[in-house]
């Protein structure tokens, strides 16, 4: 009588490493989250509508000789730049307010990769807002030309670069406050109130006048609405962004990486 024995298949020498999702894939997920949530969706719609309303008002009330592509483009940056930080805040805090952080960080244990994807998504949304302003300005210029306005297409390309810097910076400032506070209402209120308080103090308190020229983003970002920015203005902008963007981002990143998820 012969006994037949079977031997289990030998296990592979090297187990296949579990493939991590790429940064591009994580960014695509974060972009989808911006649209999937009701607040994010309506905020994006509002950004587009605001740009259209600004151009429409200019077509109705601005003198014909001022209805140019550059004049349609620049004014739309301010209200959009006011809304983009809120989008940046919501992109970060939604994980905690909707209690999805546990699921997200379980699927992607390295939190810094998730945060990096969120920041890239915010930057892409900011750049998309610039393209939206360009498109709406182009429509406004065409309408102006057809109705007897100036309809000038003259445009300095540096103005586009400065607009991108402005929108990306404001969106990332919002993301920084979101990372630091991890609470949507609190982060939005602090973002809206704190710069206003600092601007008022810088205007009223004489010893703070000089400091405000370096730390008040309302002042340091103002040159970005022109085609030419001097070296001194870039330095002031860099210092103000170091305080209002880099510091909250770094502090918020450390807090998020260390915070216990429940």
From TrEMBL:
Coiled-coil segments: none
Superkingdom in the source lineage: Bacteria
Transmembrane segments: 42-61, 73-93, 114-139, 159-181, 188-205, 237-257
The name this protein goes by in its record: ABC transporter permease
Signal peptide residue numbers: none
Keywords for the protein's UniProt record, in alphabetical order: Membrane, Transmembrane, Transmembrane helix
């Amino acid at each position: 009588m012969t006994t037949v024995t079977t031997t289990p298949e030998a296990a592979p020498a090297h187990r296949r490493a579990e493939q991590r999702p790429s940064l591009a894939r994580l960014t695509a997920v974060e972009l989808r989250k911006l649209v999937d949530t009701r607040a994010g969706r309506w905020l994006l719609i509002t950004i587009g509508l605001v740009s259209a309303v600004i151009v429409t008002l200019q077509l109705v009330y601005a003198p014909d000789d001022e209805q140019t592509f550059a004049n349609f483009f620049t004014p739309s940056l301010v209200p959009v730049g006011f809304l983009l930080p809120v989008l940046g805040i919501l992109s970060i805090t939604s994980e905690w307010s909707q209690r999805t952080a546990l699921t997200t960080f379980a699927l992607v244990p390295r939190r810094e990769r998730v945060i990096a994807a969120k920041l890239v998504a915010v930057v892409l949304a900011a750049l998309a807002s610039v393209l939206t302003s360009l498109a709406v300005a182009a429509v406004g210029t065409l309408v102006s030309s057809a109705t007897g306005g100036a309809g000038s297409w003259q445009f300095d390309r540096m103005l586009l670069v400065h607009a991108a810097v402005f929108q990306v910076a404001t969106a990332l400032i919002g993301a920084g406050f979101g990372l630091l506070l991890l609470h949507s209402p609190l982060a939005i209120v602090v973002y809206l109130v704190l710069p206003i308080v600092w601007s008022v103090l810088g205007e009223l308190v004489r010893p703070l006048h000089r400091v405000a020229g370096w730390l008040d983003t309302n002042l340091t970002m103002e040159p970005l609405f022109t085609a030419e920015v001097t070296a001194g203005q870039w330095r002031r902008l860099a210092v103000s962004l170091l305080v209002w963007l880099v510091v909250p981002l770094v502090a918020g990143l450390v807090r998020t990486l260390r915070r216990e998820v429940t």
